[in-house]
UniProtKB/TrEMBL annotation:
Residues 110-130 are annotated as: Disordered. This is Cytosolic protein. Residues 110-123 have a biased composition (Low complexity). It comes from Metabacillus litoralis.
Length: 130
């Protein structure tokens, strides 16, 4: 059963509401109804001054601040790393992976052993000459 897609204007309205989260709060408080908001949006358009009071401008600024803060934390973490310790951990992981691969080979659980046991013929189909 195919899912029914909403009308393009409804999709645009949903995007508009995401950009204006205070509208959701107004509807939840009971001050407005979705039908009323939709009709106003349809008649007035997205750019009308009425909608400025419902736009959450702080969220955009906060997201930019969070991005900048995250990048500064990453740079400081990289700056504070001891490369000898990082190298030591990488070599430990490498030896651990090698040990695990050796165990798989020993017990016949590797990918290559499964291919070898399938038969000496490399072709999936056998053709005979008449």
């Amino acid at each position: 059963m195919a899912s029914k897609k909403p009308h393009p204007s409804v999709q645009k309205f949903k995007e508009f509401v995401k950009e204006h989260p205070k509208l959701v709060q107004e509807v939840r408080k009971g001050n407005k109804e979705w039908q009323e908001v939709f009709e106003d949006w349809y008649l007035l358009g997205e750019k009308d001054v009425v909608w400025k009071q419902y736009k959450d401008e702080n969220s955009e600024e906060q997201s930019e601040e969070k991005k900048a803060d995250f990048m500064s934390q990453m740079f400081s973490a990289v700056k504070n790393m001891d490369m000898n310790t990082v190298n030591h951990h990488i070599s430990n992981m490498s030896s651990t992976i090698s040990t695990i691969q050796g165990l798989f080979d020993q017990f016949g659980l590797s990918k290559s052993s499964g291919q070898k046991s399938s038969g000496s013929n490399q072709q999936p189909f056998s053709f005979r000459k008449d």
